[in-house]
Amino acid sequence: MDFEPLFPGHPHHLIIAGPCSAETEEQVLQTAKGLAGGRVHLFRAGIWKPRTRPDSFEGIGDEGLPWLKKVKEETGLRVTTEVANAQHVEKALKHDIDVLWIGARTTVSPFAVSEIAQALKGVDIPVMIKNPVNPDIKLWIGAIERFIKADIKKLAAIHRGFSFFGKSAFRNVPRWQIPIELMRSFPKLPVICDCSHICGRRDTLAGIAQTALDLNFKGLMMEVHPTPDEAWSDAAQQITPERFLEILDGLFFRNPTISDTAFLETLENLRHQIDDIDTEILRLLGDRMKITERIGEYKESNNIAILQPERWAAVLEYALSNGNRAGLTDQFILDLFKAIHQESINRQAKVMQSDEIAAE
Ligand code: PEP
Ligand code: MN
Asked: pTM of the full predicted structure?
């Protein structure tokens, strides 16, 4: 699937910044002026805010739309806001909003996404689609497909992390493998990282932004406010325009393509070595599973339970001490061996049950 650039002169790394919410005309303009000057390509501000709890500030609404127009006139910045239904789309289009984005609480709802996509049929405006709040890549892809079907060609995805239950250093856990999988499904779709909603705090923003750039994300979004502590929404994660520009200065923007032939050769060579090792790992895992199945047959003929806790503990202990010696972390060894062990159990269960079914 080919996508068109969001706008003419679309930079390789799209930088989006602005307040979580438009609060007052003065706050919006002050933030935009602090961000103007060429480093930021798109000014964000939420006009309609889908908040998790009912008594939070739910956005300034229609009154804020002319403020964004003023941002365009006074700073030359393009502007973007979140739309969650067809009326928002209509109003945003009437006020010359340059780019629309679909929020995480909207992406989860196929009816809402369809309504917005329908309202945009025949309209030439870029749309950025945030991941759904829950880690379900199919919902994310489904939303993207709904806009493709509505003939919207200027599309981008925004990764803003996923909800979870329990404690975490993140407000929304990044689960990087999900946006990476999205990049694999749509290789030409720009995927942008919304660092603010992943971090939920200021001190980890730069690190997450760098991780995103290292993972070949095609842009960054951050929430910026002139007086972050006084923000009406998401105060803990917002930063001043000055701090934002300082973070940008400290980041390494990786090259999108490689032209140096010596570098390319070295990289190719290393990649071949990895491919060879991967082939070997898979062959060995296949062999291991065949032995597992033989053990399954043996357990079945002796009527022994599949799971032998002492054996599993011994396998794990052996893997941890060997793995540590090979420079692998405990967490990685645990994750890997849990997956291997689960597959072994599945294989043995299949062997034992199919024998039983055959005997009936
Ligand atoms: C936002 O960008 O302010 C917002 C509400 O984000 P999300 O939809 O990612 O929660
Ligand atoms: Mn926010």
From this structure: 0.81
